[in-house]
Design a protein that fits this description.
The protein is an alpha+beta fold. The chain is 26% helix and 15% strand. It is built from nine helices and ten strands. Strand 4 and strand 5 form a beta hairpin. The N and C termini lie far apart (51 Å). The structure holds iron/sulfur cluster. The site of iron/sulfur cluster (SF4) has 14 residues, from helix 5.
Length: 254
């Protein structure tokens, strides 16, 4: 809703900004609900995710669908405009030069979910000139959409292609608006946030909850008793391009 400065000040006084800033209101609701919700916020010393490759099914898109609905990710007809928080990629693309583990006789490459690695040493954070992307103490690489100036330095710095730029206004292309999460605007970069807004309300990330194969494990990697720590201790896992020194925190269990 457009309003003049005079109307804005008048309405702000009456309604606490509710009419002029619907999506800011959404953020306030999220913040309020996190502090009053029955479920306390989930906390960790270091959040991380593991993908159990043997459980992940190529034909399944549960995680992608859930994530993109949760975060109002638009669906564009033209692939060059597409916004991706999670996507599915063939094994040779995710792990170039690393032999694919596959059952004998299996010819097709595995398809793996890829998302922001929430690196311990994120180059995207180092190059951002405005502080729009920053690291939280619990390891989540965050985006402040209001600070993003669309310079795309972070996209150039990320070696995993984990970030997307809104070259067009995404709002008309959101299939079903989730009022609890703010849609973005033209000229803003976005990416996976480990569902920090759900963690604040005591819920696991949407992708983890939606995965019917139970292929995604999320938790505190610094907690020796956590499910993710136990899963990683039990076998062999890979991370994407660890030789770059980014210290990625998405682990692929073979
Ligand atoms: Fe940054 Fe890319 Fe690492 Fe995510 S995967 S923290 S966007 S460098």
């Amino acid at each position: 809703m457009a309003c003049s400065r005079r109307e804005f000040l008048k309405i702000a006084g009456i309604s606490g900004l509710g009419l002029c800033l619907p999506f800011a209101t959404g953020l306030i609701e999220v913040a309020t609900s996190s502090s009053t919700a029955a479920n306390p916020a989930l906390k960790a010393r270091r959040w991380a995710m593991a993908v159990n490759i043997s459980r992940c099914k190529a034909e399944c898109a549960d995680c992608i669908t859930a994530c993109h609905l949760e975060h109002n990710v638009p669906v564009f007809a033209d692939a060059k405009d597409s916004i991706r928080w999670i996507s599915s990629r063939p094994y040779p693309v995710v792990f170039p030069g690393v032999t694919q583990p596959r059952p004998a006789g299996e010819a097709k490459p595995l398809m793996l979910p890829v998302l922001c690695n929430h690196c311990d040493n994120p180059p995207c954070v180092r190059v951002c000139p405005t502080g729009a992307t920053f690291k939280r103490a619990d390891g989540i690489t965050m985006m402040d959409y209001h600070r993003c100036i669309g310079c795309r330095f972070c996209m150039a710095a990320c070696p995993y292609g984990s970030r997307s730029m809104n070259y067009r206004d995404p709002r008309p292309f959101i299939s079903k608006l989730n009022p609890a999460y703010p849609p973005r605007t033209t000229g803003v970069v976005e990416k996976c946030n480990f569902c920090e807004e759900r963690l604040a309300r005591g819920m696991l990330p949407a992708c983890v909850t939606a995965c019917r194969q139970k292929a995604l494990v999320f938790g505190d990697i610094k907690d020796a008793d956590s499910e993710i720590r136990r899963a990683l201790n039990a076998g062999f896992s890979l991370r994407r391009r660890p030789e770059l020194g980014t210290d990625p925190q998405i682990h692929y269990i073979l």
